[in-house]
Amino acid sequence: MASKDGLDSLMNAFDRVKNAPRNSINAALLASANELADAQRHLAPEDTGALKESIVVTGPGQSTPAYSQPGGETVAGEHEVIVTVGDHTVRYPHLVEYGTSDTEAQPFFWPALRLLRKRLQQRIDRAGRKAVFDAWNGKNV
Fold this sequence. Notes:
Blueprint: H1 7-43, H2 50-53, E1 56-58, E2 82-84, H3 93-98, H4 109-136
Helix pairs in contact: 1-4
């Protein structure tokens, strides 16, 4: 009797929708993280180029570089992407970002995030909405 009133198909749709964003959101997360890292590289001061080269995007399940800021050596979660700066040779990004008593601050990390935050969040939200919509309608199951 449950199939006559559509309850089975409704419950199947709910099950598809529950898992849909988790399965397809990582592509949007990686695209957003790469865009953020590119902006940070563009804003970073060009002394030797080592600071720019140390900006890294760490994907789901991967480990961030040792001595990176912010985060140190951290493993990204299943649906987490981390953008860090610094490594075993570049251990001074916080000094560049915030300055010291002898040098002026040259912010590059947080200004890029503040500049792009809305755009990046909209990309991730859009990917999640599309995944839910497609799952509800039985597409890409």
